[in-house]
Structures are given as structure tokens and as C-alpha cells.
Design goal:
single chain, Arc Repressor Mutant, subunit A, elongated, 9 helices, 3-stranded antiparallel beta sheet, mainly alpha
């Protein structure tokens, strides 16, 4: 996943190692806490594979502020003369055409839709996919979530042959059920948006039941009058 994130960021612009590390740190969840010890080996692997290339750029020294005094300006002039012959250079990385192809392949990997972190990372860069590929990614995610939801609900069913669940295990599984249901609805909305359709939010069963009870009570009240 680290290689995917690096290629995704370099697709946007040329960056040096420190800037890449900062971007990765800002990715909450998917790749939080990536160290330089992981980043630079990944950069070397991508460079060796021809997916990225390193370029050196010159960095101008920071300007020396004016002091407002003759002695201070003289000292600043001597400092500028000492600094001018040596300009600092830094290595930056940019994506290659082969890297663009690798990025598309990584984004379209089928296994990436089943893994929560993998899908989140792909979603962050799915703007680089064409609409058909994005839709396939969302549909694979929907199928994966639907399968997960069916497994959880089967385990929670009173007819399940699993051992009796204790309070805490059942609570955890019910939480997973609710979280998966919300994720599934979210992906349905992504699919609808990709297809240019207005997403329909399904009415929750309890709300529907309350609505029916209210309608029946209203009708009964009307008959009494």
C-alpha cells in the first residue's frame, strides 16, 4: 500500500522525501505513522522498477534580512559572499509513464476492495481512474461488504450453530453489523453518484413501523370522531 500512496502523491506533483513523509502522515488511518525507514526503501524499489525517477534541484539560501546599520549591512554582505558559491541541492522524485501504468494497476487490484484500509487508500486516489474502472471498484466493494454483512448476521441469528455468544462478543458483532450496514449504504451512494443518479436512502425498519403505527392510530382517531 505504501507504493500506491507514493505513486498517488507523485502523480499530483514532484516531491522530495520530507514532503512525501508529511503527506503520508496526513493520511489518517490508511498509512498513519510511516517511518523514514519504510519510506526510503520503498522509494528505492519504485526507482529501481522505473516507476519514479529522482531529480536534483537547487535550493537558494535563505535571504539575510537587512539590519538597518552600516556595520550590520557590511557583515551581511560578507556573509552573502561566503554563501553565494555553494547552493544546496536536494533530491526530488517524480512519476514516470511506467509509474502511471503501475498506479492504475494498483488502483484496480481486485483484492483492494475487500480490505478496509486498502479500499480507503484507493478511494483517495480513484480520481485517476476512468469512470468505468471507478464503478468496478465500488461494485467490488459493495459485494465484499454484502458478503461480510451476511456472515455477521448469520452468526448473530438464533438459529446459528455457533457456540452461545457472551455479552461482549455479541456486542462487538452487533457493532460490526451496524458499521458494515453504514459502509454498505455509503458505497451505494458512491455508486449512485458515479452513475449520475440521486441515491435513495432506505427507510430503517423501526422508522417504517413507527410510521405505520402512527397512521393506524390516526385512522382510529378519525373513526372515533
Amino acid at each position: 500500500m505504501l507504493e500506491l500512496a507514493i505513486l498517488g502523491f507523485l502523480k499530483e506533483e514532484t516531491l522530495h522525501g520530507y514532503e512525501l513523509k508529511k503527506r503520508l502522515d496526513e493520511m489518517v488511518g490508511a498509512l498513519s505513522g510511516v517511518s523514514y525507514g519504510s519510506l526510503y526503501p520503498a522509494l528505492r524499489r519504485l526507482e529501481k522498477a522505473g516507476a519514479i525517477e529522482a531529480v536534483e534541484t537547487e535550493v537558494a539560501p535563505a535571504p539575510i534580512p537587512a539590519t538597518g546599520s552600516i556595520g550590520g549591512e557590511t557583515a551581511a554582505a560578507r556573509m552573502r559572499r561566503r554563501l553565494s558559491p555553494t547552493r544546496r541541492r536536494r533530491k526530488e522524485y517524480r512519476i514516470t509513464e511506467h509509474g502511471n501504468e503501475m498506479l492504475r494497476d494498483l488502483l484496480e487490484e481486485e483484492a483492494g476492495a475487500a480490505d478496509d484500509r486498502g479500499f480507503a487508500l484507493r478511494l483517495a486516489f480513484c480520481r485517476y481512474l476512468d469512470p468505468e474502472a471507478r464503478l468496478r471498484l465500488f461494485e467490488r466493494r459493495r459485494a465484499s461488504l454484502a458478503e461480510r454483512l451476511a456472515r455477521v448476521r448469520s452468526a448473530l441469528s438464533p438459529k446459528s450453530e455457533r457456540r452461545r455468544l457472551d455479552l461482549y462478543t455479541r456486542s462487538l458483532m452487533e457493532h460490526d453489523d451496524e458499521a458494515t450496514r453504514r459502509d454498505l449504504q455509503w458505497v451505494e451512494e458512491l455508486i449512485a453518484a458515479e452513475q449520475g443518479e440521486a441515491p435513495e436512502r432506505p427507510e430503517r425498519p423501526e422508522n417504517h413501523e413507527n410510521h405505520e403505527n402512527h397512521r393506524v392510530m390516526s385512522n382510529e382517531g378519525g373513526h372515533q370522531q
